[in-house]
Amino acid sequence: KIRTPLRALILAMPICAAYAAASLVHWGHTDVEKIARDLGLSLGFLSCAVGCFLRVWNGSGRARLTWYLVGCGVLANGLGNGAWAWYELILGRPVPYPFPIADALFFLYPALLIAGFMLMAELPRGIISLMSVLLDAWLVPGSLLALAWGYVLPHLARNLQGDPFGLITVVGYPVLTIFGIAVVVGLHVRG
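Below the sequence we write its predicted structure tokens.
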């Protein structure tokens, strides 16, 4: 009998491998590149979400909730890429900027991954320990945000012509990414 994680891996690996191989050879024709990029990202994330939800199906307790959060995060990213693909491939229009539907889904991705990883880790007990991990993780992106506030954000604000959602989007992606990496590293070091 094939175990569920292996089935999930068998589902996700060919899609991710084909996408990576095509990226290495620069896709060829630009229309092919657009189709492969949009559909490849969507299918890659969606197949990984299926793998996570298969783990939910066969899991129990804390592990089940962890895989559910990670699966929902990966699904959100896949749906965000799907919305992007819908505009480019089906509607044949340029993707609007900012794109609230896709951006909201893309913001859910790191937030749900961080929550899932924090559940997955064996944290020391107590609210103080949890706050310590979060504060340690915020140290790097918070410092970068403070530096950007004085040097980069005024320039971005002028270019975005006062669009608050655009500014949140431009700043939010790198801050959430760095925060997520810092949480994972912090949990690894503490574990």
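The chain has seven helices and no strands.
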